[in-house]
Amino acid sequence: xxxxxxxxxxxxxxxxxxxxxxxxxxxxxxxxxxxxxxxxxxxxxxxxxxxxxxxxxxxxxxxxxxxxxxxxxxxxxxxxxxxxxxxxxxxxxxxxxxxxxxxxxxxxxxxxxxxxxxxxxxxxxxxxxxxxxxxxxxxxxxxxxxxxxxxxxxxxxxxxxxxxxxxxxxxxxxxxxxxxxxxxxxxxxxxxxxxxxxxxxxxxxxxxxxxxxxxxxxxxxxxxxxxxxxxxxxxxxxxxxxxxxxxxxxxxxxxxxxxxxxxxxxxxxxxxxxxxxxxxxxxxxxxxxxxxxxxxxxxxxxxxxxxxxxxxxxxxxxxxxxxxxxxxxxxxxxxxxxxxxxxxxxxxxxxxxxxxxxxxxxxxxxxxxxxxxxxxxxxxxxxxxxxxxxxxxxxxxxxxxxxxxxxxxxxxxxxxxxxxxxxxxxxxxxxxxxxxxxxxxxxxxxxxxxxxxxxxxxxxxxxxxxxxxxxxxxxxxxxxxxxxxxxxxxxxxxxxxxxxxxxxxxxxxxxxxxxxxxxxxxxxxxxxxxxxxxxxxxxxxxxxxxxxxxxxxxxxxxxxxxxxxxxxxxxxxxxxxxxxxxxxxxxxxxxxxxxxxxxxxxxxxxxxxxxxxxxxxxxxxxxxxxxxxxxxxxxxxxxxxxxxxxxxxxxxxxxxxxxxxxxxxxxxxxxxx
Length: 673
Ligand SMILES: Nc1ncnc2c1ncn2[C@@H]1O[C@H](COP(=O)(O)OP(=O)(O)OP(=O)(O)O)[C@@H](O)[C@H]1O
Prior knowledge:
It contains 21 helices and ten strands. By secondary structure, the protein is an alpha/beta fold. The strands form two sheets. Strands 6-7-8-3-9-10 form a six-stranded mixed sheet, with helices on both faces. A four-stranded antiparallel sheet has the order 2-1-4-5, covered by helices on one side. The chain is elongated and about 105 Å long.
């Protein structure tokens, strides 16, 4: 609704634009640094030690036990057909332990992790049921802190690892925490994550190398730890990493578990050195549960079912092979599915039998009964407190945007080259235009291509960068790090000065080369019109980027919209000939406002020679009349352009504000834990 009101305020009724609706304290932080050994944990012989030298930092993190039962997820397909993504899954994850959800691709690992984290993407085709308890309470009634590290890392590529952590700390820790305390917090995180050596390294991107995949993953974990979560979910933390990096990431998770966090990670096919780091294991295949219990007991359990791990064979490989469907031939597919069905049935009957025993809740868990919870009662947050104020958010976010844009030398250089090249090409095509009748067309052509070139170049730049940034912003906003208004304001304030350089460069070269109106005041207006048009086009890119689901989608939608604005740009169709129904389109066209302003700036005062027959337009005003641009001024066009610009900013704001991810609620299952 905000969107419509805002749009109505921005756009005058006369223009009748249709509105495109789319339209704590330090103590709590230190809890993070706790070295907590679960009473139930075995000796972590191969656990890397938690590098924590500060005596004040050793404090206990609130323990969280996660239990789940009857978690079922059914996807309704076309007609009455359904697909069971998860079938009646039970289990638990304990504080101080690293629980791995393992299974073949498509086995349901991510779906289970999402369901347990309460972050299953909302869909009307999904029916999610089950019970998830945190320390014996429904998730909504528990005041625990949790974090979810997604499979895809998303960072500002031009910031260093240290700046990324500092920024996250400054935005997310309560305002009451002093600067030295924040710095101390960051250094502890850094040593804990083993990132000390790369703190000055930029995060990097595909086009500019920076941190390695493993370092990025550990940085992602670091950013999530700032919320001091007791419960940490990780989706496929080792995917895409080499063996060494994967090992280091899992060691980090193991350290975190050892310091009191409850860590749940989905892992596709771990190698044996990683497998030995798991405390507990949930095995899934085809959405069915095959095992849930201590990782080191798994091989023995399957051996009791007649599936013995061959001597010298890694248990990780053995389990991965055992629960995978072999699609190499119809016979092997049927055989492997049959094996899985038998293992599922065996686990089911075991859990039914075990759940009848006293003290057992999460069906069939292989280990001693859980000694839970008196210590967990009354979990409190160490991070209570107001986050930093609007002005601090604005300053921090502007600094981040500024660093991102100013340090992105390859992009800036490419933009300079592109603008200089096109200015030189246009300059040579329209070199020192004369005052013949034919040069009227040349002048109009130049002004039109100048308007189009300026708009396209800033649109393309925004469309290529903003959808990726939006992912980071969506994640940060989901953690309530800041509000949309300071984010957008800071972004614009930081980026506009750099963004102005390129149209100015283009304008400064084309104006003298093409021999446009000789009055110096006209040059200044020419530069101003191009710069404003460039900002408006960039704002269109922001609105499209905020709305589109991916960079690819944004890159398809943006130019398509721009083509419409070009057609109604004043050069191809005379606005008096536009059908009544579409008459609002030229007013909404940023190209039209730019082109019209450029023409009104250029033609008055110019005199042209008549053609050989003594006819033609000899006065610049006649050209404006011919274009139907005669009853308006540069100021009018600039005002309309500012309205269009404000509309796109407003649309971007509303889309970003409304665009929080929504999750599928879990309906309670009939059978309780
Ligand atoms: N919202 C959804 N709509 C349609 N199918 C879905 C949805 N969510 C999950 N699935 C399907 O459920 C199955 C399990 O998916 P999930 O992503 O949980 O598997 P996974 O074990 O994490 O696989 P991978 O290791 O390949 O990521 C897959 O076949 C997937 O296509």
